[in-house]
Design goal:
single chain, 217 residues, alpha/beta, Rossmann fold, seven-stranded parallel sheet, 6 helices
Length: 217
C-alpha cells in the first residue's frame, strides 16, 4: 500500500530516514522543515528512491504560517495518509538556569506545533489515517542538564494520547514511538532503525492499539 506522507520537522536524522523509507514504498512525501539546504538534499533522496517529494521551508513555531504551509502541501498531495511529527528543541540548561520564556519557546516547537500541523492536516485525512511522533525516553527519564527536552517529550507523549482518543472514532489513530536509547550513527539506535520502528507503529492491530510504543533497539 502506497501512502501520502507529510513530515513536519524534516531533517537529516530520523525524519530523513523515514522519508526515504516511505519513498521506497512508492509514497508521495511532503517535507516541512526549517533549513532549505537540508530539504533540498532530502528531496533528492526521496526522488532518487523513485517517489515524488514536495518541500516547504516553515517556522513551526509560527502557528499561522505552519497551518498555511500544511494546507498548501496537503492540497498538492490531494490527501494525507500519514502525518509524522519530529521537531524538538535542545537547550542545554538545567532548571536553575532555564527561564520560563525559554521553556515556553521550546514547548511551542516540541509540543504546540503538533496542534498546528494535525489540525491543518485533518481535513485531508480519512479512515485509516495515522499520526506518528518521534518520542524519547526523556519523557520519563529526563536529563536535568537539558530540562526543557524532557518537558517537551512528556508533553508530546501526553498530547498524542489525547489526539488518538479524539480521532479514533473517525478511524484515524495516533502513536508516539519512545526511543529508549541514544541516537547514534550505527547500531540499533541509528536513524534508519528508528525509522523502521516508526513505520511499523502504523501497522498495529487497531483492536489492540497502543498510543505509545517503546523502541528499545
Amino acid at each position: 500500500m502506497t501512502r501520502n506522507v507529510l513530515i513536519a520537522g524534516a531533517g537529516p536524522g530520523v525524519s530523513g530516514s523515514l522519508a526515504r523509507l516511505y519513498a521506497a514504498e512508492g509514497g508521495r512525501v511532503g517535507l516541512l522543515g526549517a533549513d532549505a539546504d537540508v530539504l533540498a538534499a532530502l528531496r533528492a533522496d526521496v526522488e532518487g528512491a523513485g517517489a515524488e517529494a514536495l518541500t516547504t521551508v516553515a517556522d513551526l513555531t509560527d502557528d499561522g504560517a505552519t497551518r498555511s504551509a500544511v494546507t498548501r502541501m496537503a492540497e498538492q498531495l490531494g490527501h494525507v495518509d500519514v502525518v509524522h511529527f519530529n521537531p524538538s528543541a535542545y537547550r542545554e540548561k538545567d532548571p536553575l538556569s532555564l527561564t520560563p520564556d525559554e521553556l515556553l519557546d521550546d514547548v511551542r516547537l516540541g509540543v504546540g506545533a503538533l496542534l498546528s500541523v494535525v489540525q491543518a492536516a485533518r481535513p485531508f485525512m480519512g479512515p485509516g489515517g495515522r499520526v506518528t511522533a518521534t518520542g524519547s525516553m526523556a519523557a520519563d527519564s529526563p536529563w536535568h542538564g537539558a530540562a526543557s527536552l524532557g518537558v517537551q517529550k512528556a508533553g508530546l507523549q501526553n498530547l498524542v494520547r489525547s489526539l488518538d482518543r479524539t480521532l479514533a472514532d473517525d478511524g484515524i489513530r495516533a502513536v508516539s514511538v519512545t526511543v529508549r536509547g541514544t541516537l547514534a550513527k550505527e547500531g540499533p539506535f541509528a536513524p534508519d532503525n528508528v525509522a523502521v520502528a516508526l513505520r511499523a507503529a502504523i501497522d498495529q492491530d487497531e483492536t489492540d492499539w497502543q498510543a505509545e510504543v517503546p523502541y528499545t533497539g
